What we know:
Blueprint: H1 3-20, H2 37-41, H3 54-62, H4 77-95, H5 105-142, H6 149-166, H7 168-171
Helix pairs in contact: 1-3, 1-4, 5-6
Amino acid sequence: xxxxxxxxxxxxxxxxxxxxxxxxxxxxxxxxxxxxxxxxxxxxxxxxxxxxxxxxxxxxxxxxxxxxxxxxxxxxxxxxxxxxxxxxxxxxxxxxxxxxxxxxxxxxxxxxxxxxxxxxxxxxxxxxxxxxxxxxxxxxxxxxxxxxxxxxxxxxxxxxxxxxxxxxxxxxxxxxxxxxxxxxxxxxxxx
Length: 191
């Protein structure tokens, strides 16, 4: 094994150690190079190391002339190189975790617009209910007094019943954005 390949492997190991110990500035540009060992081999850092083939890197790390230490948790230097690369990759992923992708903003906008439209419709219905009830009661109060309180009671009941039936969906906990098909039936019981 050539000394330059062994030196390249040693420098890669030193660089990974410095990266893990925050002695080198982390950049998101490194993430794709540390994703796996094959792309790590294509990484070149001026002043540290150049590109190297996967097999050459493996042989250089296992060469007895290599001087960097092994770890008690690693079987050999090759395992240690793989472990350090994986640790560096995870550190970069954690440091430069991409922002969560925005949720489908178009559907959120549509949902928000539909909700706003429903609220406005409901507010309009409430206003109409109040105004119609007010007008009916005002007309009732402005009429000349009837001799019978029973007629007044029935008239008031009819006004309130009409308002309740017409605006029943306002009372509902989930108002419908579409008004029901309501019709005024002329006549009554005797018609």
